[in-house]
Amino acid sequence: MNYPNGIKKNTTTITNNISYSNRGMTLESELNISNEYYRSIDKAYIYKKPTPIKITKVNYPSRDKAVITEGYFTVPSTTDYNGIYRGKYIDFEAKETNSKTAFTLNNIHKHQVEHLKNIDRHQGIAFVIVRFQHLNITYLLMAKDLINFIETKERKSIPLSFFEEKAYKIKDGYMPRLDYLKVIDQIIGGI
Fold first, then answer.
1. Contact 185, 170 (CB under 8 A)
2. pTM, 2 dp
3. Residue 73 within any structural domain of the chain
4. Exposed, middle or buried by CB within 10 Å (0-12, 13-18, 19+), for 34?
5. What is the CATH number of the domain that holds 122?
6. Residues ≥6 apart with Cβ < 8 Å to 132
7. How far apart are CA 133 and CA 19, in angstroms?
8. For the chain, how many structural domains are there in total?
9. How many Cβ atoms from other residues are within 10 Å of residue 5's Cβ?
10. CA distance 29 to 184
11. What is the tens place of the pLDDT at every residue in 26-81?
12. Is residue 62 part of a domain?
C-alpha cells in the first residue's frame, strides 16, 4: 500500500482460525457485565467481592488528587463473587488460564477451596468458573467436583479432559455475556 507521503507499507497478513469473540474482555469484566444484567432484570443479585486491603500511606498533593502509596492485604480473600439466586446463596471463584491442556491448581488457593467446601456443605451453590483463554472455552465446575478431584488425585493440575467430562460449558452470548445462571438451572433444576 502506498501512503500519500510516498512510504510503502506491507499489508500482507497471516490469518488463522482464531475466534475474537472475547478479545479485549477479561473473564472478570464479562462476569461483572453479566451480573449487572441479572440485577437489571431482577433475576439475581450477585456482586464482586472487594479485596480486603488496609491502606497505610497516602500522598496528598492536593485534596482531589490523593494517591495511595502503600497498603497490604488484611486477610486472605475468600472467593470472587457471592449473592443470592432463587432464594439460594451463591458463591464462586473465577479463574483464567493460558494453558490449552490443564488448569494449574496453584491458581486457586487452599483457603478458597476450603471456603467453597463450606458453602457446598451448607447447601449453598458453590462453583468455579474457569476460562481456557487460548481455546476460548469457559467452564463451570461445581465445588463438589473440584474438591473431589483435589482430594482423590495426586496431580498439580486439572486436565482439560476432566473439565470436558465433569464441568459445563458456558456459551458466550449478548445479554448476558456469560449466562452462567442458565447452567446453574440445568444443574440444580427447579429449586
1. no
2. 0.77
3. no
4. buried
5. 3.40.1350.10
6. 97, 99, 100, 103, 138, 139, 160, 163
7. 11
8. 1
9. 5
10. 20
11. 999 999 999 999 999 999 999 998 776 677 788 888 778 878 777 766 656 788 89
12. no
DSSP string, the chain: -B-TTS-B------------TTTT--HHHHHHHHHHHHHHTTSEEEEEPPP-EEEEEEE-SSGGG-EEEEEEESS----SEEEEETTEEEEEEEEEE--SSEEEGGGS-HHHHHHHHHHHHTT-EEEEEEEEGGGTEEEEEEHHHHHHHHHH---SEEEHHHHHHHSEE--B-SSSSB-HHHHHHHHH---
Cell triple for residue 95?
A: 479463574
Phi/psi at 17 (nearest 5 deg)?
Answer: -85, 75
- Using alpha carbons, select from 86, 84, 94 the residue that is nearest to residue 47: 84
What phi, psi does 100 have (nearest 5°)? -95, -5
Asked if residue 57 is part of any domain, the answer here is no
Q: Which amino acid would we find at residue 176?
A: P
- 93-120 mean pLDDT: 94
Question: Cell triple for residue 167?
Answer: 464441568
In one-letter notation, the amino acid at residue 169 is: K
Residue 129 included in any domain: yes
Boundaries of domain holding 43: 27-50+78-188
